[in-house]
């Protein structure tokens, strides 16, 4: 019993003193008064405290040690956290300020660095920044060249629609893998991207959100940084733009998605555009099954 209590008392320590490990309790029991004769001064002090004769083999010292150990561990954890913050000040100190800024003022672009360059309107999609055909026409005509460094117009319609008429300078990107190529291109400060499809009701908004999602994923270690923090959606799409600004369309024409001469093309490109999404879902399912 004495051996057990002694070891229970010191189990918080890494090592035992040599004289304790060599003590043997297998000898013929002796009276308590005589036991002290085989103990060193240190053991006597540990077993028989002056403050409390019934303290249980120095349990007060044990509790104090455990308490100080817990405090020391907490202090070390706090020091480690502070150290990490000092090494990554942007992540530790700026994120909260940026999130607060974005929550309080919706006019800031997605990385919180500055206000939106273009005037926006309330469109069909409340989570996206929409601009009018007139604003896009002003961009194409160079009216914003003094405040933006570059712009991209991403037309998410199918190729036969794009060939039948598109906004001057637009790029045709209707596939997810094509959108991903944008994140491989060099970026510029004060660069804007404008998405649209025929009505900007489905394909354009989906591709815009896809780019933003992949951009966040790419820059997750440097939140809230983004390759493209300023993205817009053309309100009511190409149809509205063509009706208002036909001179800025090349060719000056509008071919709808449901054109009677392109029913086969429609089926082909629908399947092609959805195949990538289906492949991504299967890949995700396989990963989920492995875990």
Characterize the structure shown:
With 291 residues, this protein is α/β, with parallel strands linked by helices. Helix content is 47%, strand content 8%. The protein has 12 helices and 7 strands. It has helices at 2-9, 18-21, 32-35, 41-47, 59-87, 89-104, 133-140, 159-163, 176-180, 203-218, 237-244, 263-290; strands at 130-131, 150-155, 166-167, 171-172, 191-196, 231-234, 249-250. The strands form 2 sheets. A 5-stranded parallel beta sheet has the order 1-6-5-2-4. A two-stranded antiparallel ribbon has the order 3-7. Helix 5 (59-87) packs across helix 6 (89-104). The longest helix is centred in the N-terminal third of the chain and has 29 residues, at 59-87. It is globular and about 55 Å long. Mean pLDDT is 77; it is low at 1-38, 43-63, 81-92 and 284-291.
Total beta strand runs: 7
Question: Spans of 5+ residues with little confidence (pLDDT < 50)?
Answer: 1-38, 43-63, 81-92, 284-291
Sheet-strand content, in percent, reads 5-15%
Q: Rough shape?
A: globular
In sequence order, what are the helices and strands, one letter per element? HHHHHHEHEHEEHEHEHEH
Strand order of the largest sheet: 1-6-5-2-4
Give the averaged pLDDT, no decimals.
Answer: 77
What summary fits the major beta sheet?
5 strands, parallel
Q: How many angstroms separate the termini?
A: 48 Å
Residues in helix, %: 40-55%
């Amino acid at each position: 019993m004495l051996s057990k209590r002694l070891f229970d008392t010191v189990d918080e320590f890494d090592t035992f003193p040599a004289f304790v490990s060599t003590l043997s309790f297998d000898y013929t029991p002796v009276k308590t008064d005589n036991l002290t004769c085989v103990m060193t001064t240190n053991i006597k002090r540990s077993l028989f405290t002056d403050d409390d004769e019934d303290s249980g083999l120095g349990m007060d010292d044990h509790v104090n040690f455990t308490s100080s150990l817990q405090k020391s561990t907490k202090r070390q954890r706090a020091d480690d956290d502070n150290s990490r913050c000092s090494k990554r000040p942007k992540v530790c100190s700026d994120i909260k300020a940026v999130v607060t800024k974005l929550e309080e003022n919706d006019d800031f672009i997605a990385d919180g660095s500055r206000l939106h360059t273009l005037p926006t309107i309330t469109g069909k999609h409340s989570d996206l920044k929409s601009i009018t055909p007139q604003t896009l026409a002003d961009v194409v005509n160079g009216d914003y060249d003094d405040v933006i460094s570059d712009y991209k117009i991403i037309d998410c319609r199918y190729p036969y629609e794009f060939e039948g008429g598109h906004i001057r300078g637009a790029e045709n990107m209707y596939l997810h893998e094509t959108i991903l190529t944008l994140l491989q291109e060099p970026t510029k400060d004060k660069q804007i991207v404008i998405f649209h499809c025929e009505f900007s009701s489905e394909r354009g908004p989906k591709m815009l959100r896809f780019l933003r999602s992949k951009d966040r994923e790419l820059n997750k270690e440097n939140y809230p940084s983004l390759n493209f923090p300023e993205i817009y959606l053309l309100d009511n799409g190409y149809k509205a733009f063509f009706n208002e600004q036909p001179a800025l369309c090349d060719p000056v024409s509008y071919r709808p998605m449901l054109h009677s001469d392109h029913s086969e093309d429609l089926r082909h490109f629908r399947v092609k555009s959805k195949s990538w999404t289906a492949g991504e879902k299967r890949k995700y399912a396989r990963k989920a099954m492995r875990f």
